[in-house]
């Protein structure tokens, strides 16, 4: 396993705790090699929330992690990530706001 794979596991909520523990074993990714997080990944994560597989706090923390991590390229969805990380601007994270975001994301 490599650092990119571990970051992807974290971003996709695929055993993120295990992936976080392993990150220290690998060199950081360069800006050129950053993991791309696009609308498909965002839609998958929003669907996890709507299916109650992750919590409001999980989603907010995820957005903050994606937004602040220079090993992750989220330029294609930066407005969505900003809104989730600063969710008071969208009336908070709830099923209505996330369903609307999912519709806009597609």
Overview of this structure, please?
The chain is mostly helical and 106 residues long. The N and C termini lie far apart (31 Å). It has helices at residues 3-11, 16-23, 39-50, 56-68, 78-85, 95-105, and strands at 35-36, 72-73. The longest helix is centred in the middle third of the chain and has 13 residues, at 56-68. The protein contains six helices and two strands.
SSE ordering: HHEHHEHH
Biggest sheet, spatial arrangement of strands: 1-2
Q: List the uncertain runs.
A: none
Overall shape: globular
Largest sheet: 2 strands, parallel
Q: What does the average pLDDT come to? A: 94
Features:
106 residues
Helices and strands, with pairings:
Layout: H1 3-11, H2 16-23, E1 35-36, H3 39-50, H4 56-68, E2 72-73, H5 78-85, H6 95-105
Parallel strand pairs: 1-2
Helix pairs in contact: 1-2, 3-6, 4-5
Summarize the structure.
By secondary structure, the protein is mostly helical. It contains six helices and two strands; from the N terminus they run H-H-E-H-H-E-H-H.
């Amino acid at each position: 396993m490599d650092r990119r794979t571990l970051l992807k596991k974290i971003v996709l909520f695929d055993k993120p705790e295990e992936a976080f523990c392993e990150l220290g074993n690998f060199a950081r990714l360069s800006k050129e090699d950053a993991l791309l997080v696009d609308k498909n990944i965002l839609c998958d994560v929003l669907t996890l929330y709507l299916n109650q597989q992750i919590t409001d706090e999980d989603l907010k923390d995820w957005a903050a992690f994606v937004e602040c991590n220079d090993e992750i390229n989220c330029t294609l969805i930066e407005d969505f990530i900003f809104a989730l990380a600063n969710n008071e601007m969208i009336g908070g994270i709830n099923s209505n706001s996330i369903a609307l975001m999912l519709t806009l994301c597609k």
